[in-house]
Amino acid sequence: MTYAHKWIDGSPVDLPPGKVICVGRNYADHARELGNDVPAEPVLFMKPATALCHLDAPLQIPAGRGAVHHEAEMVVLIGAPLTDASVEDAKEAVVAYGIGLDLTLRDVQDELKAQRLPWEKAKAFDGSAPVSGLIEARGVSTRQNLDVLLEVNDTVRQYGHTGQMLFPVFPLVAEISRHFTLLPGDLVFTGTPKGVGPLQSGDRLAARLGNFLMVRTEVL
Ligand code: ZN
After folding, report:
1. What is the percent of the chain where pLDDT is above 70?
2. Cα of 167 to ligand 1 centre, how many Å?
3. What is d(CA 82, CA 59) in angstroms, rounded to the nearest whole number?
4. What average pLDDT does range 10-18 have in this prediction?
């Protein structure tokens, strides 16, 4: 299935799907729940464009590779090239927000971590980055903390807000651009609050960002 960025009303976003930069351990309570230290600088990894899919379509998760964990995250869409950007430039370049799931093969990741190997097999598989329709950044005030919430089968599993981020969104995007050039159409997954856990076939999910974006989906 091909993926294209879309707005919350379903109309197309005029930017190509690009790479996905993810941030690990950006919420202290989540770092702790997995037994990790709170990092001094952002832990970054990537998913390719082939990882992208639409969150509002039923989710196909890998079978036979152990636990598949949900990580609900605020997502930002990049609208201008950024290399070694200032925080101000980073802010200008963030053109939209969404909510996504950084799906993770947790057993595979634990094995890779134990062997001190890279995480891609656990993080970058096809369909590992479901993302909602997007909302224009100019309509969103980031001065208030935005809730990041995930319910599974009507039970709140993950709840946090963007004020809890160790690396707030615009400094984070600026920092990412010191390591990798960001291009129009790239997405940044900004890290997950605590409460990650396994998904099962038949689970019904509701993901919410702030009070303006709510997506329901299910696991096939
Ligand atoms: Zn994550």
Report:
1. 100
2. 14
3. 32
4. 98
> To which H or E segment does residue 149 belong?
strand 147-152
The tokens for 41 are: 């600088």
Strand order in the sheet with 104-105: 104-105, 68-70, 197-198
Q: How far is the CA of 113 from the centre of ligand 1 (A)?
A: 15
Q: What is the pLDDT of residues 180-189, one digit of tens each?
A: 999 999 999 9
Architecture of domain 20-218: Alpha-Beta Complex (3.90)
3-class state of residue 81 by DSSP: coil
Domain ranges of the chain: 20-218
Q: Which residue has the tokens 């609050």?
A: 193
The Å distance, Cα 202 to ligand 1 centre, comes to: 22
What local confidence, expressed as pLDDT, does residue 1 receive? 60
Phi and psi at residue 113, to the nearest 5°: -60, -45
The pLDDT tens digits of the residues spanning 149-166 come to 999 999 999 999 999 999
- 85: its two tokens: 């950007």
